[in-house]
Amino acid sequence: MLRRFLARAGTILFLVYVLEAGAFLLMCPWSRLWEKRVASRSPVILQPVLFSPFFRGFVSGIGLLHLFVAIRQVEAWRRQKEA
Known about the structure:
Layout: H1 2-27, H2 32-39, H3 47-51, H4 53-82
């Protein structure tokens, strides 16, 4: 019983982490937060890369991967409940 509860709690915590990280990585590179806190405070040699739309798209792509993992986790959890 305790093992099942801990497994379920771990799954829920992982799901919350992946959803939050995915949403943050998807939206943050296109916000003012990225420009003011990340890119402008980084070393001068990295600023052209961090302001690049290609790099911002790469970071957003990592966010999409996180969201995809979250969707797959929900599907797996739903199948496990049905079985």
